[in-house]
Structure formats: C-alpha cells, structure tokens
## 1
Amino acid sequence: MTFTLEVLPADRWAEAVAGDLVARLRAEPGLRLCLPTGETPAPLYECLRRSDPDVWSRSTVILLDEYLGLPPDDPAVAGPRLRRELIEDVRPATYIDIDTVNADHAASARDLDVAAAAGIDLALLGLGVNGHIGLNEPGSTADAGTRVVTLHPRSREVATERYGAAHGPKRGITLGVARLLEAREIWLLVTGERKADVLRRTLEGPETAELPASFLRRHPNCRVLADEPAAALLRAA
Ligand code: F6R
C-alpha cells in the first residue's frame, strides 16, 4: 500500500489543504488539476477563493464528473457549480467542463477523456458513502474508462437530498478509474463522521470493484487527507 494518511482537526482541514494546494501551484504554475464538486471540497474552495489569483494564472482545471438529465440551471449541475464555487474567482488559464448540451453523451465523455489523457498532475477526489470515486459507482473495475454511467441509487439520493437537484439524475459522465490512476498524484479528500466507515473499508478492507475507491491503493502517490471524524475508525489513525 502506497498511500499516505494525514489526519487533521476538522476545524483546520480546509485551510490546511488549501495551503498545500496553493503552495503546489506556486511551485508548479502550469499544474493540470482535476477537481470534484460536492460537500467535501466546498469549504476548501471557499478558502481557495481567497487565494492570490496569480498562482492560478497558468493552471488548467478539468472537471471530474457531471450529471446528465438535469436542467442547466439546476444547483447540482457540476460544471456551473465549480464555476460558482471556485473558477470565477481564481480564474485558471483553462477550465474544461463536461458538455451536457450535446445529445451525444458518449462524444462528451470522449472529449473529457482526451483532455485528461493530455495529463493530470494532481487529481483531487471526494469519497462517496457508497465507495465511488467520481461517478465510478460500485461495480466499476480498475480498468474502467471515461464513460457515460448509470448512477447508483445512493448517488441519485445525494444529488437531491444534499445538492438540491430537482430530481435524482439517472446518468452521468465520469473520468474512469483507469484514467484517474494515471494522474501523477491523487489527494483523496474525506471529511465528516458519515465517511468514517467507508474510509475504513477503502483503506483497510479488500481491494474490490464493490468499493472502487479501494483501487486508489494501487496508485504510487496518493495522499489521503482526512479530518478527525472521518478517520475515527482507522487502525492507522
Ligand atoms: C463529485 C464526485 C463524487 C463526490 C463524492 C463525495 O464531483 O466526484 O465522487 O466526491 O460523492 O461527495 P461529498 O463530498 O458531497 O460527500
């Protein structure tokens, strides 16, 4: 196992991760980042919005995943959400989101994959309570490609109950596990007590397609950045 586990107090987590990310951008201004949306990164993005926009001016941000079948102004739609929560303030040189207007969703997935295949230096990922990364739902294998996916029932509920979607989206587009494992570095972001059990299974249980996040243990350079409540059930913590 090659991941490193860093456990931070909940009230300092966002600021600490933001500080690390800004330092990385200063050291590597042309950084190509892959970013998620959701509740975990929201406080991180709030800190990053106050960062010096100069550090972002040569960076590229690639959106990790997107829902299909929601109206473009739905609050859960990821592309505009990331734009509101981060992109508009930090203004990276390039922001690559996922085309949901094109009716050919497979073509949108291919475009996303081409952008990611050009290289991801650092992928930030959240962890689903069902063990997904991006929208690589349970059942996704380590060689899963970037594609149109059918959402797991729990992911549909999260979209309505936590992200305010008008209805539970049935499908989405996600970077595949295989493409994510090609990133030079991965930071798995995990906060809150409700993630404690899935984080324990991700790091200490069997590596399995039933919990796609467990494949991150194959990555040579994966940092797990957890807060104390999320790490509460880990032996290592
Ligand atoms: C969102 C994404 C998802 C979330 C995960 C955790 O772009 O890729 O995998 O990261 O579902 O969601 P939160 O952070 O809302 O608990």
## 2
Amino acid sequence: MTKKIYLDNAATTQLSPEVFNDMMPYLSTQFGNPSSVHAFGREARLAVERSRKTVAGLLGVRPSTITFTGSGTEANNMAILSAARTGSIKHIITSSVEHHAVLHPVERTGLPFSVLTSDHNGRPSIDQLELHLMKIKGSCFVSLMAANNETGALTDINYAAKICQKHEAIYHTDAVQYIGHYPMDLGAMPVHFASASGHKFHGPKGTGILYTKEGTPLKALFEGGGQEKGIRSGTENVAGIVGFARALEIATRDYERNRQHILNLRTQLKTTIKEVCPNAVINEDLREESLYSVLSVSFPVKDSGEDLVLRLDSNGIAVSGGSACTVGAVSHVMRAIGKGQGYETVRFSFSVFNTPVEIKNVISILKNIMQKEV
Ligand code: PLP
C-alpha cells in the first residue's frame, strides 16, 4: 500500500517538531508544579507566564486576559456557562452552524435562546443578528463562530462584534478554526470572549485558551486551588501551555508562507475535482473568502456511491465526512445548509505538511472510485 495521506487537518494536526522540542523539558526534567514555591515550581511558573505573555502579545491583548484551558470545548463552555452564571444575561443568540461545544452549553444554561440561520455555505446571517438584538429586551450574550469547521465559511466577526457593541451585547466567538490560521488582533475588536485550541495548528491536544476582555463578568465553573486567577482551578498543563504558545508563535511567524502553500494545494484539488466528478458541489461562496485550509465537497451519492469517506480511508486517504449519510445521520451543519439527503459531503482539510504529489494521488484515487475501479 502506498504512503497514507492525511487530509483531515481540521480534525487535528500533526504536532510540530519545533513545538515538541520546546515541550520536552516540561515533560521530563522541569516537572515542577507552578504553584510550588521552590525552584522547581518557580521554573514551571515562569514557563506558564512566559507562554501567557507570548500568546497575549500575538493576539494584541494583555496577558491577564488569557486563561489556559484543557481544550477549545472547555473554552467555549467556560465562556457561555460562566457568563450565564453571573445572572446578568437574559437571552442568548447563536447560530445553526455552531459546533456542539457551543450549542450544547447554550442549551445547558436554561436561558431562552435564538438560533440564527445561515446561508447555503454555512455563514450565519448577521442581518438576522441585528433584528434579534433590536427585538430582545434585556442583556444578550451572542456566540458566533469565526470559521466553520465543516465548510470553512468565515463569519465577518468584526461586523458581528460591532453590532453587538451597538446593542450592548456580550460577544463570544468560537475561533477554534481561525486562531492559528489567521493573525488576529483581538485587542482591536469589540469582542468579549474568544476561544482557541492548540491541536488545530500543530500544537498539543488538550490545550486551549479563553480570551476574556478586561472587566467582563464571569463566575468560575470549577472551584479548587484558584489557579488561572480563580477562573479555572486545576494544576496547569505546563508542557501543553508551552506547546500552545510555541505553536501560535510558529503559525504567526510562518503565516504568509503556509497560507500560500496550503492555498495552492486547495486550488489544485478544487480545480481537478470537477473533472473527476462534474456534479460535485463545492461548498463555498466565490464572492467571499473561505478558510484556506478547508475544501468541503458534496458528492451526489448516485455518482460517488455510498461510504466515500470509508472507501477513501481504505485507499489510504484520511478525510472527514461533513455528513455520515449512510446511517442517515446527516450533520447539523449540512442539514442547515441544505446538503442532506442524496449527497455525501467530504471535508478535505490541509496543512503545511501536505504536498502537491499527495493531492495528485488523491485525485487519481477519486477518479478510480468514481469509475468504480476500486
Ligand atoms: N469549535 C470548533 C469550531 C471546532 O472545530 C472544534 C473541534 O473540532 C472545537 C470547537 C472543539 O475543540 P477541541 O477539540 O479543542 O475541544
């Protein structure tokens, strides 16, 4: 069997060797607990605070606004549930295409909520946001993602944040698929909360951050040792934190070069996929920029046959299904954008470690699948 091809980088990415090297000391000799007063502890504390400063600097905010979390999921839950616990929020507005790490905690708050619909590419309707904010009495919490994990649609979060500011609503953005892919100057935006996840940009799994604008009220979900200024008790994942910061540093340093490389791969696949399957639908709006690392393609099942993701896997190609339609479980995002029955959506997602030769091989395997030769 030929070498496996990994095109599922929106699910997770390979740890960068540079990040791995920087994490190693904190997984071996420098194992102190940052809360300990002795030299081991002080060394660990220094690493955590140095990392916080790095992350904050890269995002254009002050270090005190960055809370390290155990994942993007945790950061989303923390923003929504901790803000709701303050008792000052009366209504939540979110969208139909958010990740479950947003939709489920929104439901969990028990507060009334409204769900914005999206366009056919998975971009939440910002016009609806303004209409809702005009109608709802009392303070609102809005959660709209920066980049959609299934289609790669980008939300105009600057615009959304400004509308929220106008209506004095708290604004949270799930930026898990955005931070580490684009530079982000959070300090220049009227955003109250932003979530990110390290493993989406070649950092370690089980690491995330929640940015919280100074002065935004929060009530901690976990009680304990009072780490992270009492917002997130629990001994810090020192190696993970160091890895998160280093990965963000590299992503920002190499942004232009990586973006161009990945965009070329995406274009290569996008332009040839229509030759392989003329009825395939690319889920993007050509008038708007999409996340350059994601290409979402809906294949008509009558052309591709069923279980395309599994058949690609058995040919050594790892991708995700935007929908798992064979068992009838079409994803909530695909349903929201109307690519449900009759289509199997495949999310190809790229990283800097992919090559043009790999894309050529993917095309040739797809061709064989469409011609029912494999
Ligand atoms: N939000 C979005 C948009 C995601 O794509 C993901 C992961 O796929 C998450 C949140 C959850 O992040 P994590 O895997 O760090 O929990």
